[in-house]
Write a structure and sequence with these properties.
The chain has 309 residues and is of the alpha+beta class. The protein contains four helices and 14 strands.
Length: 309
């Protein structure tokens, strides 16, 4: 049994040896004409097939590498284009910040702002970066720290500029409120001034000098009286010596008083705007005739109303 197995193994080896290393006859028979016959070694065919396969794989690998290389070059060109656009945008943003700094200074000068909490200097020459040159370098040569510092500085400048503009806006709004709250018009246009601000002889026949805290406007009965600045009505009604009167608080230390009125159109707590009709001219209270007694107070002291027309 063992000898039979050995014989089979030897026979198989011999067959394989003849198949690989023996000669193989190949005959090519065309449809017409004589055939062609040649001999080859199977191992040579195997070697040729292996070489052909290796060359084919190498060619495919080289082609794939070439395609990858072209794709990478195309991507690099796209990235360079994008970097150029980014560089142009960064330079443009820098110019905008520089322009906003100039605008900031001009606005402060026009509004009369002396200094400010959020004023900051523009970019210095030491912070100048030519991004077109920077991004044209190889990635390994780009100074990332320098770019990060520039971007941080740009962000800092933009935030400071925003805060500065907010400061200007607040200042303007505050100035506008002060302007709106400052008496600046005559309380009536249908009358003439008959008595000025300051010391005068009493009009009630006592011939005693007394300080007149406002102006007297004489006019026709029921002439319209208008408030001279924005404010809030603090009193509307009878007041000792003034008869029917209106007191308006304008804020920022200003208040105005309108006395000897005939018909009051507002009440305490009303918000009034400059030029608003608040009463008619009358002769109520201690009065010698139809007229309006008008006072302007600043920080608790009566001042000459003429300086506020």
């Amino acid at each position: 049994m063992k000898n039979d197995k050995m014989k089979i193994v030897r026979k198989t080896r011999s067959s394989l040896s003849r198949l690989i290393f023996g000669r193989m006859e190949i005959v090519l028979m065309p449809r017409f004409g004589a055939g062609v016959k040649f001999s080859v070694y199977p191992w040579a065919l195997l070697l040729f097939a292996a070489a052909w396969l290796a060359l084919t794989l190498y060619a495919l690998f080289a082609a794939a590498q070439d395609v990858d290389c072209k794709i990478i070059k195309a991507d690099n060109n796209i990235m360079k284009t994008k970097f150029a656009m980014i560089a142009e945008e960064l330079s443009r943003n820098r110019k905008y910040i520089e322009m906003s700094h100039t605008t900031d200074e001009q606005m402060r000068q026009m509004l009369g702002m002396k200094g400010g909490k959020h004023i900051n200097r523009p970019f210095g020459d030491e912070e100048e970066i030519n991004f077109k040159e920077v991004f044209a370098k190889n990635p390994a040569e780009i100074d990332e720290k320098q770019i990060n510092q520039y971007l941080s500085r740009t962000t800092e400048m933009a935030q400071a500029r925003l805060a500065s503009f907010q400061e200007i806006a607040w200042f303007y709004a505050n100035q506008k409120n002060i302007s709106d709250s400052t008496p600046s018009i005559k309380p009536t246009t249908d009358a003439v001034i008959t008595s000025g601000f300051g010391y005068r002889l009493s009009p009630f026949g006592t011939f005693i000098a007394a300080f007149h805290k406002g102006l007297d406007f004489a006019g026709k009965p029921n002439s319209k009286i208008r408030v001279t600045a924005d404010g809030v009505v603090r009193h509307a009604g009878w007041a000792q010596g003034y008869g029917q009167a209106v007191l308006v608080d304008h804020g920022f230390g200003y208040s105005t008083l309108y006395g000897h009125l005939a018909d009051i159109k507002v009440k305490a707590g009303d918000v009034v705007k400059r030029g608003q009709f608040i009463a008619n001219m009358g002769t109520t209270g201690r009065s010698t005739g139809v007229h309006l007694h008008y006072e302007v107070w600043k920080d608790g002291t009566p001042v000459n109303p003429r300086t506020y027309f």
